[in-house]
């Protein structure tokens, strides 16, 4: 998937096409914020050579953050992080057998020296990964910083309207 704005700043990577139903929530946030990104399927287990070349070229390709979603034995974020210094944010998929605990532990328990920023399991993690990546980019982009603050404000206003006590019946 390609967002029309160039150059691409963020890559959303996932272990399987079946992860897209979760990772699309990250994509939606990036689109909302006008951040360029691409998305592709790469698996440490199933396509290891593709993973190595992707990670080795991440800097040359201009990626500022990589968001990596994987489930089960979720080695994708850690393996990406082992091959590049582009920050990697890991999103554990809600797996069926173990409810995502397997994914979470696989991503969060990195050995010291190779960090992966681990988000929550599933949709919330995907959304927050995109917001976190945006906040990193906003450190050097004042326009994005304004858009992020607007999004926060809007989020608060929407919640206040939604939880207005006069609406409780
Ligand atoms: N965890 C990984 C990796 C990896 O870490 O490299 N590659 C695929 N997978 C995960 O396997 C799960 C099942 O994949 P399928 O649904 O394609 O069988 C997915 O959640 C994927 O992220």
Explain what this protein looks like in three dimensions.
- This protein is α/β, with parallel strands linked by helices and 169 residues long.
- The protein has a single domain, classed as Rossmann fold.
- It is built from six helices and five strands, in the order βαβαβαβαβαα.
- The longest helix is centred in the last third of the chain and has 21 residues.
- The termini are far apart.
- Bound molecules: the ligand Nc1c(C(=O)O)ncn1[C@@H]1O[C@H](COP(=O)(O)O)[C@@H](O)[C@H]1O.
- The site of the ligand Nc1c(C(=O)O)ncn1[C@@H]1O[C@H](COP(=O)(O)O)[C@@H](O)[C@H]1O has 17 residues, from loops.
- The site of ligand C2R has 17 residues, from loops.
Secondary-structure map with pairings?
Elements: E1 10-14, H1 20-32, E2 37-41, H2 48-56, E3 65-70, H3 76-83, E4 88-92, H4 101-108, E5 117-118, H5 123-138, H6 142-162
Helix pairs in contact: 1-5, 2-3, 5-6
Bound molecules: ligand C2R.
Q: How is the main sheet built?
A: 5 strands, parallel
Spatial order of the strands forming the largest sheet:
2-1-3-4-5
Question: Which outline best applies?
Answer: globular
**Percent range for helical residues?**
40-55%
Taking Cα atoms only, what radius of gyration do you get, to the nearest Å?
Answer: 17 Å
Give average pLDDT, whole number. Answer: 95
> What's the N-to-C terminus distance?
44 Å
Topology as a string of helices (H) and strands (E): EHEHEHEHEHH
Q: Please mark out the parts with pLDDT under 50 across 5 or more consecutive residues, or reply none.
A: none
Count of domain modules:
1
How many β-strand runs? Answer: 5
Structure class: alpha/beta
Taken as a percent bin, the fraction of beta residues is: 5-15%
Bound molecules: the ligand Nc1c(C(=O)O)ncn1[C@@H]1O[C@H](COP(=O)(O)O)[C@@H](O)[C@H]1O
CATH fold type: Rossmann fold
The CATH class is identified as Alpha Beta
Q: What's the architecture in CATH terms?
A: 3-Layer(aba) Sandwich
Number of contiguous helices: 6
